[in-house]
Amino acid sequence: MSGNPLFGLFAAWIGWAGGFLILYALQATGCRAGWDSHMIGAVSTLRLLLVATALTIVFVLLGLSWKARRNGPASPLARIGALANGAAILATLCFAGVLWLGMCA
Amino acid sequence: MTPSRHKTALRLHRELTDIWATPPGWGRLQAVNHTVIGKRFMLTALVFFAIGGVLAMLIRTQLATTQSAFLDAAAYAQVFTMHGVVMMFLFAIPFFEGLAMYLLPKMLGSRDLAFPRMSAYGYWCYLFGGMFLVGALVAGVAPDGGWFMYTPLSSATYTPGVNADVWLLGITFVEISALSAAIEILVSVLKLRAPGMSLTRMPIFAWYMLVVAGMMLIGFPPLILGSILLEAERAFSLPFFDPARGGDPLLWQHLFWLFGHPEVYIIFLPAAGALSTIIPTLARRPLEGYEIAVAAVIAIAFLSFGLWVHHMYTVGIPHVALSFFSAASGLVAVPTGVQIFAWLATLAHGKPRMSVPMLHVFGFLFVFVLGGLTGVMLAMVPFDWQAHDTHFVVAHLHYVLVGGFVFPMMAAAYYWLPHIFGRQSVQHLSHAAFWMIFVGFNLTFFAMHLTGLRGMPRRISTYPPEAGWETLNFVSSMGGFIMTTGFALVALDFLLLAVFGKPFRRNPWRAGTLEWAMPTPPPAYAFASLPEISARADRLDPDRLGPALAAGKGYLGSTRHGWMEVLGVDMVTGRAEQVVVLPNRTCLPLLTALASGSVFALLLLKLYWLAPLALLVVVALFLLWTRDCGLTSDLADLPVGHGPNLPHHYHAERPPSYWAMVFTLAADATLYASLLFGALFLWLSAPNWPPGLDIPVDAFTCVAVVAALVIAAAFGRQSLSGNDRVARSLCFAALAYGAALIVLVAFLVGIHGAATRHAAVASIFAVKSYAALHIAVGLVLSLFCLWRIGSGHVSARRDLDLRLGRLWHMFTLITGLAAMAFPFILTLLAGGAGP
Amino acid sequence: MRRAIGFRGVLAFSSVLPLAGCTGDLSALDPAGPFAAAIADLWWLMLAGGAAIFLLVLGLFLLVLFRPGSGRRISPSRWIWVGGVVFPLVTLVALIGHGLIRGEYILNLRIGGDPVEVEARGSMWHWEFRYADGARASRGVLHIPVGRTVVVTATSEDVIHSFWAPRLGGKIDAIPGHAATVRILADRPGIYGGICSEYCGTGHDGMRFEVHAHPAEAYEAVLAGLSGEREAAR
């Protein structure tokens, strides 16, 4: 599948969607398990976990788009892929709330 | 045209028409042609649009004054529910499917869609499903819980009648049609194009439809799953949504909106694709920013799956989780902005000409931008806490859907009606009709924003005078009647065009896309021969291409064996790689749809023992479809008029049906993932967990089924080294499937009582039933392959049937393993982390 | 050009359409407490911004349509990148940030000491309110003290309802098996309207309630006069 040039168009976005689901599921599971009241220093375990996950997602997307850019020749399809990947990386802004918003309320 | 060229063209026209045309009279029931099916979809959708419009007028009559006694609350509930259902499921989606079916082959330089019989089947399913729903309305038993059917209101306790079943079964039936259309569109766009048309040379409309079809493939399965689970709760008391027995009403909301929000973009994007085609033609300049527009469409597709919870801000989800969805809902406006500014840039650098479609483009921009802005407002969590479920939301969604779909589709209609009828508009009514709709619409729905902010909730049938909503509501109602008159004028205008419009020779808009490089109205075969594309396919010259293609100068410019031939290309580069021979007209789609309809009808009548028999008939009929598929002897590569000879698609490595199987499995996997996540969601969120009864974990069943599946997959995968050996392997695979099925069904029978007592057991029941169903299909496929070997359809060069089977066996193995592991995981979770 | 006049006339007409009068017992635009006021402020801010953006986009469209060539000095890619990417991105990130800050403010705001906790229990088709863990109850009328944050926990006995007192704060769905909360506050004593805003069957229209806001001393007296939950249910 990753050999298919079509995959390069969607790679970062698929990563974004997967990351989105993981974050949402982690948040819900963490609230259920009470990780939000378990503190490490001044920050709850759950927040640390979510921030770490969000950062990981950003790095994975950067890696994916870097790889796609390096592999592809400068064809129109590769240019569309680069734009789409860039948009997916920008869209990780959606996860910024994990830094400061109420975790379980 | 020279006389000899003319003669060739005429002869070719006659030969191709004999092969491709739909016969008159009763023969129409055999139609599989994309032009015919596309027009049927659009016309039927317009009839449903009229029905939905009448329902809207009933709503506006009811709300025009305070304390109205026009409809009682129960009748009003059916009316507003059906208005939403009809407009969303029976008008919007089928209409753009019809438009896409009609246009795509013509724009892509092909003669038909990849699976003509499937389009016909999809049409009949849509028609019958729609008739179920409208029939229920006439009989007074229509769905009445709102178009999103929230449980527990729609559960058996609070809707004991058949109303909710009509929704669940009717909509699922229509969704099957939509899914088959999605697969059809995906494969057709990816594989059936003119040679040389690489992905990035496609007309932009094809990109939009490619993305939309992909979204449908992933977006519809959650709703189908939700409908199945809710129907199972209503019919068999499996408590997926009942909080007293470990279910959760919120599960329904998640499943519904996981479909429901992408749905809005699924409806908007085809309209945007039409605009991206129309605006450049009217601006006399190719679309600016083709590449960034494609990237924007991809971005919308993914973002639209990340904002479903913005319909659920008021259910008590923690703020940080809401922030993901709020941000995604806001950010989705960026790629929408990219498209709008791509259109503006095209107009700015072109020489725009005033015309009726342009008037509707103006209507689109005015209305849709307002709808988008209120959409961003509603994406803000605190504002939504006030505006949610008020008439503000009603106003917003109509601005988005009418602005984002109806106005663009009217632009599209005025633009492409000359193509359909071969006649041009005489324009007497067009302007008046537009202004009536435009003014009426804004009167109706602009006022409604304020009605909502002043506190009027959705779906109330009466309100007291002291609420202070009467003036605004009266304005809305009057606006609504003006708008309806406008739509009636548009209908009349279309009729006048069809009957009295003035004929034209070719390409009235001076467009640069391929659909105009053919006679109008279009012949059944679309192109007498297929073009070679060497530039972006919205910058072509139809006036030069058309006559050459009609004279058979392109690919496949002659007929053989009465075959319906098109070219299959490499999906990225557009290099021609196979000759795809399509199946011809037949009554089978109609019969199969009738049989499928009877399955749903039997379920509706609660004849649960007869329904499986009808299902067997459906399976048998589908197997009959394959009689015309494939080859009974190996063929040499076929000449196609230019370039090297190409293999028949049955000899090709990746024919269309292979991709159809891949996409079907993708949709299937989405449904399964939704089911597994749904069960985990219940563990996480539902009250009354952990269950007060033992979760049935039967190690013997699991081990036996896993062993059988591994055996089946191993034998089903056997590569071809002689028909006898394969046949023997397939027999073993079939036996293994049979054994697995027996063990699994025994297990299901054993737990069905416990399944009605708690959602944990019910979800195990659902997951294992899914596995059982796939095992049953695996069994049928193994036997089918044996039949194909016996009938001489299989050889070393003709192993497509076996390869399709192999895909299924692998999928069944993987999903089966997950299904067998599932009860253990659930036990671990429910036992361990329970409160 | 005749058509041009049509375009503009309608534009002028519909932009001045009804924005008059924002009063009413259930009007979210007539806030009577800090929660509803914070949301109403957000609305007015977004309305102003939205109107400006709408006029800008529509103006550009009409400009390039009726003054062909006027947009040609700007290159197509600049049109798209500035108008379609940079501008919306900056605006939206600012707005989303603002919306989240305001949401966090509303979720954490405490006025007048410890919040008062009440339970709103919806059933087809009326509301029952419980105070002090069910020791006191009232039907159809929610009593609250003035100037103190009230946390309403909503739940349901049958289908989904939604608790909404627009002048005092946002709404919260009452879902069977769940208990979600919303904060409301009244600045002044008085009677405020409330209504169920999730469709809940044929009695949905009539599922109204009132919120009576009392000064602190009077509130205690009113509560003391209420009976327990069983009597209220009669």
TrEMBL record, chain A:
Domain of life: Bacteria
Keyword Transmembrane helix: yes
Key words of the record: Membrane, Transmembrane, Transmembrane helix
Name of the protein in its database record: Transmembrane protein
Organism: Shinella granuli
Listed transmembrane segments: 6-26, 46-66, 78-101
TrEMBL record, chain B:
One GO molecular-function entry: heme binding
Domain of life: Bacteria
Positions of the Cytochrome oxidase subunit I profile domain: 20-534
EC number: 7.1.1.9
PANTHER family reported for this sequence: CYTOCHROME BO(3) UBIQUINOL OXIDASE SUBUNIT 1, CYTOCHROME C OXIDASE SUBUNIT 1
PROSITE patterns reported in the protein's UniProt record: COX1 (PS50855), COX1_CUB (PS00077), COX3 (PS50253)
Native species: Shinella granuli
UniProt-annotated location(s): Cell membrane
Protein name listed in UniProt: cytochrome-c oxidase
Membrane topology: Multi-pass membrane protein
Transmembrane segments: 41-59, 79-103, 123-142, 166-192, 204-230, 264-283, 290-309, 321-347, 359-381, 393-417, 429-452, 472-500, 586-603, 609-626, 658-683, 695-715, 727-751, 771-789, 810-833
Pathway membership: Energy metabolism; oxidative phosphorylation
Chain ranges of the Heme-copper oxidase subunit III family profile domain: 576-828
NCBIfam families, per database record: CtaD_CoxA
Catalytic activity: 4 Fe(II)-[cytochrome c] + O2 + 8 H(+)(in) = 4 Fe(III)-[cytochrome c] + 2 H2O + 4 H(+)(out)
GO-annotated cellular components: plasma membrane
Keyword terms, alphabetized: Cell membrane, Copper, Electron transport, Heme, Iron, Membrane, Metal-binding, Respiratory chain, Translocase, Transmembrane, Transmembrane helix, Transport
UniProt cross-references to Pfam families, sorted A to Z: COX1 (PF00115)
The keyword Ribosomal protein is annotated on this UniProt entry: no
Any GO BP: respiratory electron transport chain
Family (UniProt): Belongs to the heme-copper respiratory oxidase family.
UniProtKB/TrEMBL annotation, chain C:
An example molecular function term from Gene Ontology annotations: oxidoreductase activity
Keywords, comma-separated and alphabetical: Copper, Electron transport, Membrane, Metal-binding, Respiratory chain, Translocase, Transmembrane, Transmembrane helix, Transport
Domain of life where this protein originates: Bacteria
Domain Cytochrome oxidase subunit II copper A binding: 113-225
Catalytic activity: 4 Fe(II)-[cytochrome c] + O2 + 8 H(+)(in) = 4 Fe(III)-[cytochrome c] + 2 H2O + 4 H(+)(out)
One GO cellular component term noted in the UniProt record for this chain: membrane
InterPro entries: CcO_II, CcO_II-like_C, Copper_CuA, Cupredoxin, Cyt_c_oxidase_su2, Cyt_c_oxidase_su2_TM_sf
Compartment(s) of residence: Membrane
EC number: 7.1.1.9
Segments traversing the membrane: 44-66, 78-101
Top-level enzyme category: translocase
Record keyword Cell membrane present: no
Pfam family for this entry, one: COX2
UniProt GO BP: ATP synthesis coupled electron transport
Membrane topology: Multi-pass membrane protein
SUPFAM superfamilies per UniProt: Cupredoxins, Cytochrome c oxidase subunit II-like, transmembrane region
Family the UniProt entry places it in: Belongs to the cytochrome c oxidase subunit 2 family.
Function: Subunits I and II form the functional core of the enzyme complex. Electrons originating in cytochrome c are transferred via heme a and Cu(A) to the binuclear center formed by heme a3 and Cu(B).
Name of the featured protein: cytochrome-c oxidase
